Amino acid sequence: MLQVLFLLIIVDILNAVLYVDTGPTKRPQSEFETVLTDVKEKEKIINCEDFSQYSRNCTSDAALVYNSSRMIPPLPNKLYDWCKAIKHLTTCAMDWNIDCKGQTDSYFNEESIKGHIHVANNICDDDLFLLHYEGLTQCIESNEDRWEDCYKIFKMIVEQEKNTSLEWTHYDIHFNLCCARTSFRRCTLNIIFRSPSNCTHDQAVTLQKFSVIVSEGAVYQDCGKNIMYEQCPGGDPRPSKHMLKRLTSENDARSKANADLSMFFVFVSALIFFVHCLLFLNQNILK
User: Fold this and answer.
1) Are residues 218 and 250 in the same domain?
2) Looking at the 3D structure of the chain, how many domains does it have?
3) pLDDT value at position 271?
4) DSSP labels for 118-169?
5) In Å, how far are 26, 43, 272, 274, 282 from 269, measured between CA atoms?
6) Same-domain pairing of 91 and 173
7) Rounded CA gap, 162 and 180, in Å?
């Protein structure tokens, strides 16, 4: 029973950091550090008999940095705080696993910890992604309600499946989790690329990448070739060819335009070289 309680509380804590506040926050120049280092040092001594208090301490510490009421992507000026909260809560779960795993019959699911580390690595510690994310304010604000609707459904299904068993890799649970993850990606893809969304193509691609990474964090499993998506509840959740074409078409068009421009410069350079050769020959003939 304690194991189930532990799992549910931490999952709720980690999912809670997707909620967003609206106050402005500047991102410091330093690397993402552990949240509240002085408190973190105190927590090195963990009372393994009182998980509820440990959980409350972790949650309250993270809430001092990032606390909100909605399940939407954080605005760019809050992404730094969002990342700090995720890293702090993940560290809390890892510390409990290390210090209390041998003293109690409960421990946090390793797969879920790896999923949240995956989110931190691919969003918070990816400088190129962070650079693209900086321009997403208007894009997020224009899609946040519909994005939140997608995420609420995804979160509900994932929690239902994970609460069924602590063995998340069991085939039936694994199958349903993969279906939910793919369905969420299709849902966000449809809203982000549906007009009007107030997103440029590059912004839409970045926001969809955020959605994909978040879904991988929540369902950190291999949902590859062996999943029979045609049998998912509600039908095949994979994006239509039309939507996938929209996701890649502008990049393809830009690549083609760049290639055409390169050919044009090659042609002009060859023409200039040819003219210079004619002038040189003409000068020699006149001599």
Assistant:
1) no
2) 3
3) 61
4) HHIIIIIT-HHHHHHHTT-HHHHHHHHHHHHHHHHHHHHHHHHHHHH-S-TT
5) 48, 68, 5, 9, 20
6) no
7) 12
Q: Which residues contact 46 (CB under 8 A, 6 or more apart)?
A: 54, 95, 96, 99, 100
For residues 222 and 263, membership in a common domain is answered with no
Q: What is the total residue count of the chain?
A: 287
Per-residue pLDDT tens digits for 22-36 = 343 444 443 333 434
Residue 73, CA atoms < 13 Å, CB-side half-sphere: 32
In the predicted structure, residue 231 carries a pLDDT above the cut 60: yes
Range of the domain at 248: 240-287
Domain boundary pick from 85, 115, 145? 115
Task: Based on the fold, state whether residues 144 and 220 are members of the same structural domain.
Answer: yes
Taking only the tens place, the pLDDT of each residue in 187-213 is: 999 999 876 678 999 999 999 999 999
Contacts of 50-59 with C-beta under 8 Å, sequence gap 24+, read 51/2, 51/5, 51/6, 51/9, 51/96, 51/100, 51/104, 51/106, 52/9, 54/92, 54/96, 55/9, 55/10, 55/13, 55/92, 58/13, 58/88, 58/89, 58/92, 59/13, 59/16, 59/89
Rg (CA), the chain: 25
